[in-house]
Amino acid sequence: MTVENDPYRVLIDWLSLRGVDFQVMAHDEPSSRNDARCPEIGEQPSAKAVLVAIGARPAMVCVLKASDDLDLSKVDRLTGLNDASFVPESDLATFAPGCENGAIPALGCLFDLPTFADEGIRGDPRISFFAGSHRLSARVDRAAWERASGVKFGDLAADLATGTQRRRSRQSVDRATA
Question: What's the pTM?
């Protein structure tokens, strides 16, 4: 399955055909492309999808909490290779037509690619991710998304400066300081 100029429709069809419950959230464009949280969802962490290349070719979609950064050295360890890189934004329009930069859905299968996710999202009962646009997100049951997409989990998020702690979602930080 490939996305052709209407990633939202392809995503909604894919979720519906596989029986994944979802809600579509319309929201104002975030002030920062790094802010993948939808205000309607409140403090629940959202997920972001990152297109990763091995060598010069897109090879996988990595999904992690919106507040985390992807550690490419961990992708290298996961794949057993040594040349993971971010797909340049200038190449996204060719590979994911209709998707805005930084807004690809968290389903590699829409792009004929495998999906890998950081262990950090595994504990979230629901996740939300962009639906090809910064103005539309899909909120799904994480376990149903996991079963339907065949996602593989691993340690992908960058560690904190100490190197010993995983990044926590803003919700976890807020709770810890409350």
Answer: 0.80
Q: Is 85 helix (H, G, I), strand (E, B) or coil?
A: strand
Indicate the helix (H) or strand (E) that contains 54. Answer: strand 47-54
Chain centroid, CA 125 distance in Å: 15
The pLDDT tens digits for 27-70 are 765 544 444 444 444 433 389 999 999 988 899 999 999 989 99
List, edge to edge, every strand of the sheet that includes 57-65: 84-86, 47-54, 57-65, 115-118, 152-154
**Closest residue by Cα to residue 48 from 59, 60, 29, 33:** 33
CA distance 157 to 142: 18
Exposure of 36 in the CB half-sphere (CA atoms within 13 A): 32
